[in-house]
Write a structure and sequence with these properties.
Layout: E1 3-4, H1 5-12, E2 15-17, E3 23-24, E4 26-27, E5 37-40, E6 57-61, E7 73-77, H2 80-95, E8 100-101, E9 106-107, E10 112-113, E11 118-119, E12 124-125, E13 130-131, E14 136-137, E15 142-143, E16 148-149, E17 154-155, E18 160-161, E19 166-167, E20 172-173, E21 178-181, E22 186-188, E23 194-196, E24 202-205, E25 210-211, E26 216-218, E27 224-227, E28 232-233, E29 238-239, E30 244-245, E31 250-251, E32 256-257, E33 262-263, E34 268-269, E35 274-275, E36 280-281, E37 286-287, E38 292-293, E39 302-304, E40 309-310, H3 311-322, H4 324-341
């Protein structure tokens, strides 16, 4: 699909400096621009590339003033980075704008769905499922009985949603993600054998949540595992039964959260963090990558390490840790000197 500079300027509410009929059909980095591509300039250190890029169109801040002759057509906007991001989202929506029901696929006779459904081949929709408008369900997706899927959701290839789970509006579930598998519930008996504890709850995911590829969110033992609105989950995250994650919290890859832990709003959690069960993490908490969280955290804490310390204490302690070999050598020398003085 091709767009002219004039069309793009209309989408971004910008102005064209150059050929309004210049056409592009792909995106590129400014240093890798080729004929027919669109790029942008936001970081000043990339300014030299604007004079030699082969891209056909470049998005720039409106106050950008070229110091040399320039061939690329410019689209001037208030904020080049934000405008390019907006254009990426627009491009993505166009690219993902599939419709229709492919065959073979299965939709239960008791399922209901709204307008503009896309259902890819080999997808399965169970009994009493309710699907909203403009939902995109890619091939090999499974949606179990009694699930509810809100408007504008996108479930990519191979995603699985077990029975009774609820997705709000504009939820993105990437490939291989599993929502609603059993929580890790087993009880040992007197012989050391484990009996399965039935997991009878569900998962509730509110509006505008993104769930990365390979992430798993377990159903509650009783009640619901809840992911509040605006949460962003990276790839390969494990969220156990009865966990609750507050609004607009972001969690990086390979983090594991044990059962019944409550995480507050607007938290940022780095990659490979381990969080024990049955604790409470406050709002706006910052947890550095590879930390181990074994206690409750108050609002606005920043922690690092395993077990985690306050961020400042960790850095101070780490300085001493790095110096342990030299400190040990000094101590040995003092002991030797003391022995010689006797």
């Amino acid at each position: 699909m091709k767009f002219t500079a004039e069309q793009i300027a209309g989408i971004l509410e910008g102005s064209v400096d150059g050929n309004p009929n210049a056409e592009v059909s792909k995106l590129s980095k400014i240093e890798e621009g080729t004929q027919g591509s669109l790029t942008f300039l936001a970081n000043p250190k990339y300014t030299p590339y604007i004079y030699k890029t082969k891209a056909s169109i470049a998005i720039v801040d409106k106050d950008f003033q070229p110091e040399h002759d320039i061939e690329v057509t410019l689209i001037r906007v208030e904020d080049a980075y934000k405008s390019f991001s907006k254009l990426l989202e627009y491009y993505n929506q166009v690219k993902l704008n599939k419709s229709g029901i492919e065959q073979p696929s299965f939709i239960s006779d008791t399922a209901e769905y709204g307008e503009d459904l896309y259902l890819g081949a080999f997808a399965y929709i169970g009994n009493n499922v309710k699907i909203g408008n403009n939902v995109k369900i890619y091939p090999n997706v499974y949606i179990g009985d009694n699930c509810k899927i809100g408007d504008n959701c996108v479930l990519f290839q191979g995603a699985k949603v077990y029975s009774d789970c609820v997705l709000g509006e504009t939820v993105y579930v990437h490939s291989g993600a599993i929502i609603g598998a059993d929580g890790f519930g087993f009880a040992p008996d007197e012989n050391g054998e484990y009996s399965r504890i039935p997991q009878t709850g569900n998962v509730i995911i509110e509006d505008n949540v993104d769930i990365g590829a390979g992430t798993t969110i377990d159903r509650a033992t009783l009640g619901s595992t809840i992911i509040r609105k605006g949460v962003k989950l990276d790839n390969q995250i494990q969220i156990a039964h009865n966990v609750e994650i507050g609004e607009h919290t972001a969690i990086a890859a390979q983090t594991g959260i044990a059962g019944s832990t409550k995480i507050g709003k607007n938290c940022m959690i780095g990659g490979q963090v381990g969080i024990v069960g049955h604790i409470t993490i406050g709002d706006r908490v910052r947890i550095q990558a590879q930390s181990g969280i074994t206690r409750n955290l108050k609002n606005d804490e920043a922690v690092q390490g395993s077990p985690a310390l306050s961020y400042n204490d960790f850095n101070k302690s780490y300085v001493h840790f790095k110096n342990l070999p030299s400190l040990a050598e000094q101590l040995n020398n003092l002991e030797k000197q003391k022995s010689n003085d006797k």
